Amino acid sequence: MIKVNKINKTYVNGGTELRVLKDVSFQVEKGEFLAIMGSSGSGKSTMMNILGCLDSEYQGEYLLDGIDISKMSQDELSEIRNKKIGFIFQSFNLLPKLTAVENVELPLIYSGIKKTERYKRAMKLLELVGLKERAEHRPNELSGGQRQRVAIARALINEPSIILADEPTGNLDSKSEEEIMKILIDLNKMGKTIIIVTHEPNIGESANRKIIFKDGEII
Fold it and tell me: To pair with 180 at 20 to 30 A between CA atoms, which of 55, 142, 168, 197?
């Protein structure tokens, strides 16, 4: 499903160059659960941004379902993100003035889906993550674990084939962490390709395979 070949990424700050990815190459199979691991500054989050089509300033080849992502325009990248990839972030990224169900519906507004269909699909996903009863609550009325479950439902709303999760349990207590990881494992069993970025060994153990970064390289 994913093939990256000799990816290099360099940041330039003033006259100083910092090479954060160095000839990185790997593949991800359809239906795999992959953990990208490493300490802070190892390059794992930079790699995640490239995989999520959020960063196009790199050298090398990135193929997603056989499509050469590295040659796409910003509009084409936006379409790929909307159709193929669901994002889960450490900070949830929910809109505070919207209810849980409205936050889940949000990506469908940009797809031109009618309101009744949006609501129906969003409620089905909130039920999937065990939050149907909290659909009309706003984020400040939900616990951290509940907010992350809303974020997972939102990530699934466009039926993406890939879920990218960047430190999804970083702000959660151990009980909520277990609940979120169980949801991700269940989604993987349903056929979703899951790629999780984490520095926590116990989270990495949930994956089928681990790629460990250090100083911009896979070790």
Answer: 55
CA dist list (Å): 192 to 12, 161, 173: 36, 6, 25
**pLDDT tens digits for 89-125?**
888 889 999 999 999 999 888 777 899 999 999 999 9
Strand partners, 4: 26, 62
d(CA 34, CA 31): 10
Summarised one tens digit per residue, pLDDT across range 149-205 is 999 999 999 899 999 999 888 888 889 899 999 999 999 999 999 999 998 888 888
d(CA 104, CA 54): 21
Q: What is the pTM of this model?
A: 0.90
- The number of helix segments (H) and strand segments (E) in the chain equals 7, 10
β-pair type (193-198, 33-37): parallel
Angle in degrees, CA 30, 20, 57, rounded to 5 = 70
Burial classification of residue 114, based on how many CB atoms lie within 10 Å of its CB (0-12 exposed, 13-18 middle, 19 or more buried):
exposed
Q: Which of helix, strand or coil describes residue 151?
A: helix
Instruction: Return the pLDDT at 201.
Output: 87
Domain 30-59+73-218 has CATH 3.40.50.300: yes
102-108 long-range contacts, Cβ below 8 Å, gap at least 24?
A: 103/139, 103/150, 103/151, 103/154, 104/150, 104/153, 104/154, 104/157, 105/157, 106/154, 106/157, 107/82, 107/154, 107/157, 107/158, 108/157, 108/158
